[in-house]
Design goal:
By secondary structure, this protein is mainly alpha-helical. The protein has one domain: Up-down Bundle (Four Helix Bundle (Hemerythrin (Met), subunit A)). About 60% of the residues lie in helices and about 5% in strands. It is built from 7 helices and 2 strands. Helix 1 packs antiparallel against helix 4. It is globular, with a radius of gyration of 16 Å. It starts with 9 loop residues before the first helix and ends with a helix.
Length: about 170
């Protein structure tokens, strides 16, 4: 059995982002139950040099939608990065999930050797499709989803491994 580029991207990202919705919903419920202003949690960070919760979610969605669009050769949806509430972040996640699920397997499969160029402030970086997906995007999506989870867990939200992984 082989694993296609589509199977290694869209369903993987959909699952991670869907599980993050669940984690954020628990965070919102926690804030309400504990009478904590939600912006306190949205701006919380684990270390001074790390991004806050809201930015972790934004980056996770940017990585997923950017990867799928680049592999498919279509325009990357642009978001304003102005989410100021848990519902805003959940809406961003749902919008991203809808976008990546609108891309078909035929648009992504066969892109293992496609040249992907990322424009950086310090110069362009070029990858082939498969290493871009497996060694750059997937770890980034998981890192930012995990960090968002960790922030909420750290402040006391009752989330566990099953919340992060989801139901099998």
């Amino acid at each position: 059995m082989t694993l296609s580029m589509y199977q290694a991207s869209v369903p993987v990202f959909t699952r991670a982002l869907t599980n993050l919705i669940h984690v954020l919903e628990k965070g919102a419920a926690f804030a309400e139950a504990k009478k904590i202003e939600p912006s306190v949690l949205l701006n919380y960070r684990l270390a001074a040099d790390m991004f806050p919760l809201s930015r972790q979610v934004q980056i996770a969605t940017d990585m997923a939608k950017g990867c799928v669009a680049r592999l498919a050769g279509i325009e990357i949806p642009k978001y304003e990065d102005n989410e100021a509430s848990f519902p805003d972040l959940v809406a961003r996640l749902r919008k991203t999930i809808d976008f990546i699920n609108s891309v078909s397997a035929s648009q992504i499969d066969g892109t293992e050797d496609k040249t992907i160029t990322l424009q950086r402030k310090d110069g362009d970086v070029t990858h082939k499709g498969l290493p871009y997906l497996l060694y750059y995007v997937q770890p980034n999506v998981y890192f930012h989803c995990t960090t968002a989870y960790d922030i909420l867990r750290h402040v006391g939200v009752e989330v566990g491994k099953k919340d992060f992984i989801g139901q099998l």
